[in-house]
Design goal:
This protein has 2 helices and 3 strands. The protein is an alpha+beta fold. The chain has a 3-stranded antiparallel β-sheet.
Length: 79
């Protein structure tokens, strides 16, 4: 059985570097004991309730699409 922090704990070892250099690899996600768990970079782990995970997934989807559209506008590839 895996052990990980409680569902209200977020671990990020080097917050400054995470804010300045985005990670290009998708994260592994699984469910266990009623929680959705995200294995982050460098040992970071996020555990969420299923409801929080769904809301977060929607926010990630929206933010990613917004950034892809903004990047296309910046590069002049709007269609």
């Amino acid at each position: 059985m895996r052990t990980y922090p409680s569902s209200q704990t977020f671990i990020l070892k080097d917050q400054e570097s995470a804010m300045t250099s985005p990670h290009a690899q998708p994260r592994d996600v699984f469910h266990e004991n009623g929680e959705v768990v995200i294995d982050g970079p460098d040992g970071a782990v996020i555990a969420m309730t299923p409801e929080a995970a769904l809301r977060t997934a929607g926010r990630l989807d929206e933010a990613a699409l917004d950034e892809l559209i903004a990047a296309a506008h910046r590069s002049g590839n709007t269609g």
